[in-house]
Structure formats: C-alpha cells, structure tokens
Amino acid sequence: MRRYTGVLIGKQATVIACTNPALQNFNGKIVDETKMTLKIRHNGKLKTLLKSTVTLQVDGLLLSEKELIGRTEERIKWQH
Fold this sequence. Notes:
Elements: E1 12-18, E2 27-33, E3 37-42, E4 45-50, E5 54-58, E6 61-63, H1 65-68, H2 72-78
Antiparallel strand pairs: 1-2, 1-5, 2-3, 3-4, 5-6
C-alpha cells in the first residue's frame, strides 16, 4: 500500500470523492490534521473531514483514505 509521506498542512486540496455528497468538489487549504481528520478552510469556512470517508487531490496526486491514514509524523517515518 502506498502512503503519502509529505506534510499536508498548508497544501491546497480538493475533495474528489466523499461519502457526504455535499462535500464533493469542496476545495481549500488544509489547516490542521489529526490521525483521523483533516480541517480545510475555504472562503473563511472551516470544514472537518474524516480521512476514512474522502479521496483528495493534493499536489496533482489522488489520495484515498488508506493513503491519508496516520499523523504527519507517522507518514514521514514511513518514507525512511
């Protein structure tokens, strides 16, 4: 299984797929991350997304829930 090993905070992201259809194509800047969630800000609104329910496009890459699993520091360790 491939995992994204970079830092997500500060990156622009677009929701490609989500179990909540209202969030489809939602985009903005990732401002916070926990093991299970991402917070994305768009036009002053902050949305909390469960990593287990979304597929995101970040830096031209499609990232599924399995690739988003874990905290930033855990993903950085996996690259070494």
